[in-house]
Amino acid sequence: KENLNINGLGNIRLQTESDEIEYNIIKTKKDLDFETKFIIIKNQFKLDFLNYQKEPDTNLEILIKGNKALNKSFFFSKISLKEKTNSFLLSDLLLSNNYEIEKLSKISLDYIDKENLKNKVQIKRKNKDYILDGETLNLNKIIKDILKSKKRNKKNFFKDTLKIKLNIKKVNLDKESDIQNLKGFIVLKNNHIIDA
User: Contact 68/62 with Cβ under 8 angstroms?
Assistant: First the structure.
């Protein structure tokens, strides 16, 4: 058969409790389209690098929509997470076969982290560069992780050298220290800052 369409809904157990899943997968000779929605109800969910953890007894909805050309890159048109007033959105994310980021259009983050600090920023692609712009960003966890890290990460997150222009009104370094009106740029290559 050339085309295959699989869809359904039900419960899935990936942790202690069952969660809800709804999915639609369409396979053709050339590619695979997919759309999946998870609703995590009683289980935990963390994004450690963002210092985020789902609150107990709240629903977290995860939507993943994309395409995989056979023997080629993954393309995610949308990845979103929503829990109460917390939201995370990635648009038009292209991953190489090595799972490195080739490009993305936009990331929007609007959430309260585990330190009870507000994070509200966007990363948008403009030509070949990216702009990190927003109200507030807590870097405490990222700074701690960098200082604790003994091994260098050998896996690259980005396929190419990446320039990010910064424009953030308030950056928290920890609970007591912050930087107001952070502007500038950083250039990343092989997971290292090579220029700022």
Answer: no
